[in-house]
């Protein structure tokens, strides 16, 4: 790890390229440890399964956005300015506690039930087939650009009826906002994203359609309605969470199949293993590194550590998912492992509302890819670069070789 402004370890690029080594040491030594993020924010990192699950569910770890501003200033130990998000992007259900969280989630959860998501299967299959048709005849492609990114962004943009013309700008803003870029870049991207979404809210208010976002703009529940800022924030959350996690689910999963050819062979020989394989993708190299920020509202005992009141806490999902105390032989990638129990989608009241959609997109994308093509890794594994994000665990690119299978 790099040297920081304090004696605490800094989660720098060395960490992002191989966080699992650090997480194994963290789990072995204590339930939680103070570290400094690469932009200079001092936090407590929790890496054991039981303790992470506890942090994700206990109400003494607050997510109310209004409480963070002072804490960010208090715990910022770097020399540079910290990035400040546009305030209209942060007032969503992931940054709120009950009862406000309950109110916000109730208005969106009905759109993402397993039954409603299953109705999307034909369209998701169609989009996937079109993307795979587009790379037919190419010997090598970047799987992120060819499939992992365009599939979920197309699906979520169609669900919310967001113009696809803005997809490239949206991807650039999204990468900056979740990637820990320079503060000036974050503020510029946040402002552009907020302005874009604000215009979209006004358009939906004047021109409602048969889509989830129109329903949110005009939704009432016991005479409750989201105000303009809440709508902008909710659109931001649904668009970011609705594609970022699935991009990484698909790319990380295929990456690990290629690194473990015996597992790829198992999946090819028995496609019924696919749902379980998706769960192992999520456990072994999930799309989210650390869950979003929480802070302690009082002193809280976490395992063998007492975290004082007023401290920022991160539960590492990918660390918890490799805890030997919960998953025997946790460092092994095994698509036949009994599924369930992982924390890739979180836990508690903030459990990912889009989990059924992500699972379905992952199954369709990976299943169709393996059905149509023989694939191989088209770059030395050590040359692949992971995004420098405490939130997202994903590759910048995944070059793969393609050849059409002999029979379909």
From TrEMBL:
Keywords: Heme, Iron, Metal-binding, Monooxygenase, Oxidoreductase. InterPro entries: Cyt_P450 (IPR001128), Cyt_P450_B (IPR002397), Cyt_P450_CS (IPR017972), Cyt_P450_sf (IPR036396). PROSITE patterns: CYTOCHROME_P450. Pfam families: p450. GO terms for molecular function: heme binding; iron ion binding; monooxygenase activity; oxidoreductase activity, acting on paired donors, with incorporation or reduction of molecular oxygen. Belongs to the cytochrome P450 family. This is Cytochrome P450. It comes from Saccharothrix australiensis.
């Amino acid at each position: 790890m790099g040297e920081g402004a304090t004696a605490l370890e800094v989660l720098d690029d060395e960490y992002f390229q191989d966080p699992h080594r650090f997480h194994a040491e963290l789990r072995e030594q204590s339930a939680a440890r103070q570290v400094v993020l690469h932009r200079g924010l001092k936090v407590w990192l929790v890496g054991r399964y039981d303790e992470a699950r506890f942090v994700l569910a206990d109400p003494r770890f607050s997510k109310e956005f209004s409480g963070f501003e002072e804490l960010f200033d208090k715990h910022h130990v770097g020399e540079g300015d910290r990035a400040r998000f546009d305030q209209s992007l942060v007032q969503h259900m992931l940054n709120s506690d009950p009862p406000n969280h309950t109110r916000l989630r109730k208005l969106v959860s009905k759109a993402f039930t397993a039954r409603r998501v299953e109705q999307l299967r034909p369209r998701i299959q169609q989009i996937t087939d079109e993307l795979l048709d587009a790379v037919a005849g190419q010997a090598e492609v970047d799987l992120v650009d060819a499939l992992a990114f365009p599939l979920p962004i197309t699906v979520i943009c169609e669900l919310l009826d967001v113009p696809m013309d803005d997809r490239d700008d949206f991807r650039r803003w999204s990468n900056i906002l979740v990637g820990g870029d320079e503060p000036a870049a974050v503020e510029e991207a946040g402002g552009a994203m907020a302005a874009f979404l604000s215009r979209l809210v006004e358009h939906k208010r004047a021109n409602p359609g048969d889509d989830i976002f129109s329903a949110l703009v005009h939704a009432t529940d016991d005479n409750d309605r989201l105000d303009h800022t809440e709508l902008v924030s909710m659109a931001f959350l649904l668009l970011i969470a609705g594609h970022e996690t699935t991009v990484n689910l698909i790319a990380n999963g295929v990456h690990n199949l290629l690194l473990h050819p015996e597992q790829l062979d198992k999946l090819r020989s028995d496609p019924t293993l696919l749902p379980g394989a998706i769960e192992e993708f999520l456990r072994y190299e999930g799309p989210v590194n650390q869950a979003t920020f929480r802070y302690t509202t009082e002193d809280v005992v976490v395992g063998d550590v007492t975290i004082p009141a007023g401290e920022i806490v991160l539960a590492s999902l990918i660390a918890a998912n490799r805890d030997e105390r919960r998953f025997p032989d946790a460092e092994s990638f095994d698509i036949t492992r009994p599924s369930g129990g992982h924390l890739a989608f979180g836990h508690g009241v903030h459990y990912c509302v889009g989990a059924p959609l992500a699972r379905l997109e992952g199954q369709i994308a990976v299943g169709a890819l393996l059905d149509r093509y023989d694939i191989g890794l088209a770059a030395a594994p050590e040359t692949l670069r992971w995004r420098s994000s405490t939130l997202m665990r994903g590759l910048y690119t995944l070059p793969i070789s393609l050849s059409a299978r002999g029979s379909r």
